[in-house]
Design brief:
The protein is α/β, with parallel strands linked by helices. The chain has helices at about 65-75, 110-120, 135-145, 160-165, 175-180, 215-220, 230-245, 260-275, 275-280, 290-305, 320-325, 340-345, 390-410, 435-445, 450-455, 460-475, 480-485; strands at about 15, 25-30, 45, 50-55, 95-100, 125-130, 150-155, 200, 210-215, 250, 330-335, 350-355, 370-375, 380-385, 445-450. The strands form five sheets. It has a five-stranded mixed beta sheet. A four-stranded mixed beta sheet has the order 10-11-9-12. Strands 1-2 form a two-stranded antiparallel ribbon. Strand 3 (about 45) and strand 4 form a beta hairpin.
């Protein structure tokens, strides 16, 4: 059996807020060789006063130090809040620390600029710190242990906020939502399993899609595959092209160092085998030993045998995999819809196209493009309020206004879905081609399935993610994958399919 080495999750950027006036959004990037060093991805933000010259770059590893930090925490206790220099003027009556992420999954710079505007309008001091997605996840875990969570922090949907909510770190926001007057759609304010709501929505939905480099498709005279057999043939055709032209284009270029992209591809294959498989499993009608789940695992091993992935894909992180696609080193990138605008910015409106994963059912579900997968089918990602904040009402008020304005911009300017029932909002009349393609995909959906990771309890989800990584690495057989998977993928662990209806 072919085996690969695999390692820990990818290092992530680390950014710190630079000194400046209250409410200003000035950030300094730290890198291993000094500020503004070239990295895998660079992000440029704009403030109200004009383009910001600083760039968001990959920096010294954060995750590598998590274990050491936890050890120091146990030995010496937490160090307390960050020490700030004394202000030179009278401090604002309300000061809030806000943690957010800002990377290629974020639609635009308005996610930064709006905080600046709100700070000025409300007269609050909003100390906003931004992180890369994975870095913020680790920061939240460690800060919960230390009792040093900020007043406001962004979270992901599904099972991710479980450890924060169960620890009592989040304020229920049901009353704030009801009193806000914002007509949220019910599916965007779904309750936790205790029946309460803890999240104020502000982030766009993430759907599973396949991105194809249009230039490479035309160059190699290939078409987007619609069946499993066509996908395998495409992989072989790319290798034939490489051999004939001395190139090294990767057929399917995702990075599985972070595990979740590989897990996503497996669940996409299952969803193409039978889009109702997870429903049937959660209802006890089938179990993980069903042929559907075994066949999907065998398809993963078959892709590896056909060298569909890069040789170092188990050491390649998500950020690097996106950059490889942008730079034309990869033909097909399985990912989420959230990177749509980042790809448009760096590849142009005509540089790529998107499609659903091809049919794997042998024609049984020939209308496969209408069966979509979503990262947050039960709890929408958004903003949480720290139970220990001294300004809960003020924090809720500014977060609700942020939520309202973000939705207005995302819907009226970017063409994302409106998460409210506000009839005064209208989408753009003319959408960029990739956005229109995505909207058409959503409009035609007839069945939506959640990403499995977000259907499971946090502990089970992490074990499941690691198990799929071992399958890709070839260190376990398909039989062992099924046997161990049966202990994780079952109704007992699908806690978010038991959530009470809103």
């Amino acid at each position: 059996m072919k085996q690969h080495a695999f390692s820990e999750p990818e290092n992530t950027p680390r950014r710190t807020k630079s000194s400046g006036p209250a409410g200003a959004l000035a950030f300094q990037a730290q890198t291993s060789s000094g500020p503004c060093t070239r990295g895998a991805l660079a992000f440029q933000a704009q403030t109200n006063s004009g383009p910001c010259a600083k760039r968001y770059e990959p920096a010294r590893p954060f995750v590598v130090f998590c274990g050491l930090l936890l050890l120091l925490t146990l030995l010496t206790g937490c160090t307390g809040k960050e020490q700030r220099t004394a202000p030179t003027e009278e401090p604002a009556a309300v000061s809030l620390e806000i943690w957010s992420f800002f990377d290629y999954n974020t639609p635009g710079n308005h996610y930064l600029n709006l905080w600046d505007e709100l700070a000025e309008e409300y007269g609050y001091e909003l100390n906003v710190k931004v992180f890369k997605t994975e870095e913020l996840k680790d920061k939240l875990r460690i800060s919960l242990l230390c009792g040093e969570l900020p007043d406001v922090f962004e979270v992901w949907g599904g099972s991710f906020p479980e450890f924060l909510i169960d620890a009592g770190a989040c304020i229920p926001v049901d009353d704030y939502l009801q009193d806000s007057g914002i007509p949220y759609k019910e599916e965007y304010i779904s309750p936790y399993k205790d029946g309460r709501r803890y999240i104020i929505p502000c982030l766009v939905d993430a759907y599973a899609v396949n991105y194809y480099n249009k230039t490479l498709l035309e160059q190699m005279q290939l078409t987007i595959p619609e069946t499993w057999e066509q996908l395998v043939a495409l992989v072989d055709a790319v290798h034939a092209y490489n051999k004939a032209h001395g190139t090294s284009i990767v057929p399917i270029g995702f990075g599985n160092k972070d595990s979740w992209l590989g897990e996503l591809m497996y669940t996409m294959i299952v969803n193409r085998e039978n889009p109702y498989a997870l429903d049937q499993l959660s209802a006890g009608e089938i179990d993980f030993e069903d042929e559907i789940f075994r066949d999907a695992a065998e398809k993963i091993r078959l892709l590896d045998e056909h060298h569909a992935f890069a040789e170092d894909f188990l050491q390649t992180g998500e950020v690097e995999s996106v950059e490889n696609f942008v730079e034309g080193q990869v033909l097909l990138l399985p990912h989420q819809s959230t990177i749509l605008y980042y790809l448009m910015e760096h590849m142009g409106d005509d540089g790529f196209t998107m499609a659903q994963f091809p049919d794997c059912s042998g024609g049984r579900f020939a209308d496969y493009p209408t069966y979509l997968m979503n990262a947050n089918p039960h709890m929408t990602p958004g903003l949480c309020l720290n139970r220990d904040t001294e300004h809960a009402d003020e924090a809720a008020m500014v977060c609700l206004e942020f939520s309202k304005r973000v939705n207005e911009i995302n819907y009226t300017q970017y063409g994302y879905y409106n998460y409210t029932l506000d009839p005064s909002l209208e989408p753009p009349r003319q959408l960029p081609a990739p956005v229109q393609q995505f909207r058409d995909m959503l409009d035609s959906q007839q069945k939506l399935t959640g990403f499995w990771y977000y259907e499971l309890s946090k502990e089970s989800a992490d074990s499941w993610s690691n198990l799929t990584k071992q399958l890709y690495a070839g260190v376990i057989s398909v039989d062992e994958f099924i046997a161990r998977g049966k202990e994780l993928i079952n109704p007992e662990h699908m806690v978010y399919r038991k959530a009470p209806a809103p």
